[in-house]
Specification:
transmembrane helix, 2 domains, globular, alpha/beta, 243 residues, Cell_wall_LiaF, DUF7649, 32% strand, membrane
Length: 243
């Protein structure tokens, strides 16, 4: 439940941030986008070189710049004002129409609980940084991850894929995705990207701009063992290779 709430929270943050940026660009000039992209790239490359002093400086410069740019937008100030007005209206309405809670007594009965098995996923959501499957042998569970900035590496060579359809879903704003698939497994790939390159086996698309593409190996529909890959990136490269 906590992971689900955290994932929903990240999705809402991304959605609200995107709306704020679009509002700012719509009513004013697009200069804010330039500063936001500069801050995003500073965070990304600084995170890659955090072991160096220059990387740490670049990373925190990007974080601070991103925060200042978002907080200084007129759209963000308007959102805070709208939230304040909403809270005041709800408070005034609660004073006029108070809610009364009465106990609801029902006959108790025994209901058998359906047993559930919770398994730990091989990969977890990370806001920043590289996400990868374990280097040792691991038990396969469908992968569904998302992040803001960072690469994702999924190696299916260290696990045993079950019969039927296995699912891999990756959503990211800035970063590359690398997926390693065994030779005997059929694959379908649905990829959406704003800007980046695509390399799937021998097929290469060096410049994919605002595209949604679908790839499928010939025997996918009738295969007893197959992998369905769904990826969504704002800026980043997708690479799917055989191992």
């Amino acid at each position: 439940m906590f992971n689900r709430l955290r994932s929903d929270g990240i999705s809402w943050i991304i959605l609200i941030g995107t709306v704020l940026i679009l509002l700012e660009v719509s009513f004013y000039d697009g200069g804010v986008l330039v500063f936001l992209f500069i801050a995003a790239f500073a965070i990304y490359f600084g995170r890659k070189n955090l072991h160096k002093k220059s990387g740490k400086i670049l990373f925190w410069f990007g974080v601070i710049s991103l925060g200042i740019n978002i907080f200084n937008t007129v759209a963000f100030k308007f959102l805070l004002f709208a939230i304040l007005i909403f809270i005041i209206m709800r408070f005034a309405d609660s004073k006029k129409h108070p809610k009364y809670i009465a106990p609801d007594i029902k006959e108790t009965f025994t209901q058998s609980q359906e047993p559930l098995i919770m398994k730990k996923a091989a990969m977890q959501n990370e806001w920043f940084g590289t996400k990868r499957t374990p280097e040792d042998v691991f038990e396969w569970n469908d992968i569904n991850i998302q992040g803001i900035i960072g690469d994702s590496v999924i190696d299916m060579g260290n696990t045993v894929l079950p019969k039927g359809t296995s699912v891999v879903s990756v959503r990211n704003i800035l970063g590359n995705v690398e997926i390693l698939v065994p030779y005997e497994v059929e694959v379908s790939i649905h990829h959406s990207v704003l800007a980046g390159s695509i390399e799937i086996f021998e097929s290469v698309e060096p410049k994919a701009i605002n595209q949604s593409l679908y790839y499928q190996t010939p025997g996918y529909e009738t295969a007893g063992q197959r992998v369905k890959i769904v990826t969504s990136l704002w800026i980043g490269d997708l690479e799917v290779k055989r191992i």
